[in-house]
Amino acid sequence: MRGPRTTQSLQAVPVNSPMEDWLRMDRMPHIWCPGCGIGTAVNCFVRAVELSGIPRKKLAIVSGIGCTGRVAGYIKLDSFHTTHGRAIPFAIGLKLASPDLHVVVFSGDGDLIAIGGNHFIHAARRNVNITVICINNLTYGMTGGQVAPTSPKHSIATTTPYGNLESPFNLVHLADSSGASYVARYTTFHVRPLVHTMKEALTKNGFSFVEVLSPCPTLYGRRNRLGDGLDIMRVFKEKAIRRDGLSTDAAFVDLKNGPIVIGKFKDRPREAFLDVYNDAMTRVIGKDHFIPYGPVTMRPPEDESE
Amino acid sequence: MSGHRGTEVRIAGFGGQGVILSGMILGRAVSIFENKHATLMQSFGPEARGGACSAQVILSDEKILYPYVKAPDVLVVMSQPALRTYLPTLREGGKLIYEQDLVKLEEGDELPEGATCYGVPATKIAEGLRRRIVLNIVMVGFISAVAPMVSMESARKAVLHSVPRGTEALNGRAFDMGYRYGVENYGGES
Amino acid sequence: MYSIKEAVLSGIHFIDGDVACAEGAIAAGCRFSAGYPITPSTEVVERLAARFPMVGGMFVQMEDELASSIAIIGAAWGGVKAMTVSSGPGISLMQEHIGLAAITETPTVWVNVQRCGPSTGLPTQPAQGDMMQAQWGSHGDYPSLALCPNSPQEAFDLTVRAFNLAERYRTPVMVLLDEAVGHMLEKVVIPPGDEIDVDARHFTSKPPKEYRAYECAPGSLVPDMARTGEGYYFHVTGLTHDERGYPIMLAEVQRRLMERLMAKIDLDDVTQVVQSQVDGCEVLVVSYGITSRVAERAILEAREQGLRVGHLRLLTVWPFPEKLVAERCTQGSVQRVVVPELNMGQMVREVERVVAGACPVTLVGHPGGAVHEPEVILEAIMEVRQ
């Protein structure tokens, strides 16, 4: 991993922007390149939070490492910028220790699916009540455009200068088959349904997963003849087809030839980890011995915590 | 360096015979009910999963510094391979205690000088109680009679303290029968 | 800490070091643990898994040690006391997150039941080969705190202490058992809960507007924590950060952060060394963990042979108690310092460093897989007569 790229957007968030209250303005300008989709996804997320009715202070955000990993540093919430690939297990610890919090993991495809791939599938299987938002820009941005497990076959990256020989993961299929309660995919072009989906994901019980296809013109678009940010948005617009409820193994992403299948693929009620835990322990150990696990039992009383 | 050695006991047999629990009972009896010192080192890994199994117990009036058994004062064996492996380590003047239907002393099994041996049909006694699983508790009762390292009362208390709730009566009987067999056949405390 | 009286398993027990360690954690108020099975530490988490539901805690078996070691950091930020447990290869995998806990100043306890290495080594046999790893395992400089019990009783006591130090200094603390201590059953006396001193977490009393995540009160080098979910909107990062917790990529900020981190642990407060007949001794033995018991037998024998032998038994191994060890080893009477350890020579380097040539330092190394024969240590002690 190299350090952050020097390309910086010099456009600060406009004064009196509706985002101002939600961002750490003293940290602007952000590090994202012109045409990058991460900022759009952040806007959608903030809007979704506002619509969700979740009390702001009860929402915590966890990121890993990478361009999207910086989101936690910009959004004014209790925010945790962790290690590469490990945002999900951090979030699980945070959630289990503090069950009244809503915990969101906001990170990139390399972080969540390559180095963090094992945690991703196990978290979906374990079904702890957290939301994972994956900004998928098909590449490693922070380190300068290396191949990712989401990079299309034959795409060009700095570490596959002659083309990627491997097939990419279908993230929604991966999440679905691992047991996620809620699985959806949109692009940064589809802001309205994306806001709605993020809101829904935030309020679902269990492991919810939202994939957001996002342009990386600087490091992916340029090398793969997809043009600049606007060109990639045009691809998203023209090649996307919405297929709610489609079996995830048929939910393909093909930026070159289409289609880019978007929509809500899975929304199945499944008991979340903590519900199962408390029910099962009460049954197995008995009311007399089991202390139900929750915000009350986990917190020491105020007066003793000086 | 025998001055700081304590009494060394090795209990050996197959996994599943309750070898480790026997060692725990001795250790509990000494450290909890007689307020002296005891250590127990367990064998781990493949050994603890069905194959050979052994517990190394050291009992002492002083703090135990070296917790491994090198030359046991008391060797308890519940399988033929255990006898093969550990008989050569028995200390001179030590005691060999064995389950007589599972372990056969054969020609060529030489005891060290001054050593004595004590056989007990612990499996048969346990089967008499219709619970073969209490074999190890019968052994503990027998050990308490022929090689007393703690008082009979402490050993019995430790048994009741160590077995699953609801099985105290059964295990207490198993202990008593092992103990009685020792007293009747070997005259008890020797 | 809450319901501690009910949670603590007060009484006299005959248990092994692993179980005692788990009970120490519960007594100290630990209510979350994440781990992954690995010999010889598994009994610690098995005990926690069985006991936690009865005391309002939770154990989760994660998919690997990477997940376990960061889940406890997440849990600590969720407001609870948390610990992870591992051995050998698992501890190697956890190193990155020891660094994360150090730089984010997350109070956490890390139990390492040492086995033989490198790599898979001898999983079921004792070693003390992770001593230097406990200090230097994660990349970069950071303050290390590690405690080394030599009995199940100390496994209990030092685990309680580890939690207290973790809260006091907001830092990861390691409990370094070895397979022999972990798997040895011995008497453990657990006092009543209200007789066990437990440090609570230091939460800020400032309102959110005045709170800066890494700003210390005057005279203190340890910042107070904020509770997650209370509207402080604080930021925590593994990047070099300023008093606000914001990442700042400047050498000057790195200097300020590192100087505070390296200075925040009070050596006198954390040092625990058991001294025996040290005054005027001819030979001084410095040891720790299971080796200190075996060495004690050699020391008693040497004393019976008329040699004046002192013993420094390190309970705190990191930070290395350099002041005390230097002072004791360089008193005029000491002709030789003997350092037995279950490795090829690790802590002996620290002893040599602080003795600085004032007298010969003899390593009695051992590759692990068994403990020393006391005779070998005795021989090294008696060599001073030749």
Main attributes of the structure:
heterotrimer; A: 306 residues; alpha/beta; Rossmann fold; eight-stranded mixed beta sheet; 8 strands; disordered N terminus; disordered C terminus; C: alpha/beta; 14 helices; 38% helix
CATH fold description of chain B: Pyruvate-ferredoxin Oxidoreductase, domain 3
What oligomerization state is this entry in?
heterotrimer
| Main sheet overview of chain C | 7 strands, mixed
Shape of chain B: globular
Verbal overview:
In chain A, 33% of the residues lie in helices and 15% in strands. Chain A is an alpha/beta fold. An eight-stranded mixed beta sheet of chain A has the order 2-1-3-4-6-5-8-7, sandwiched between helices. The radius of gyration of chain A is 20 Å and the shape is globular. The termini of chain A are far apart. Helices cover 37% and strands 19% of the residues of chain B. The radius of gyration of chain B is 15 Å and the shape is globular. Chain B contains six helices and six strands, in the order βαβββαββαααα. Chain B has 190 residues and is of the alpha/beta class. In chain B, α1 crosses α5 and α4 runs antiparallel to α5. Helix content of chain C is 38%, strand content 19%. Chain C has two domains: 4-195, Thiamin diphosphate (ThDP)-binding fold, Pyr/PP domains (Rossmann fold, 3-Layer(aba) Sandwich), CATH 3.40.50; 275-385, Rossmann fold (3-Layer(aba) Sandwich). Chain C is built from 14 helices and 15 strands. Chain C starts with a helix and ends with a helix. In chain C, α3 (42-55) links the parallel β2 and β3 (58-61). Chain C is an alpha/beta fold. Classes of the chains: A alpha/beta (306), B alpha/beta (190), C alpha/beta (386). At the A-C interface, β2, α3, α5 and α10 of A face β2, α3, α4, α5 and β9 of C.
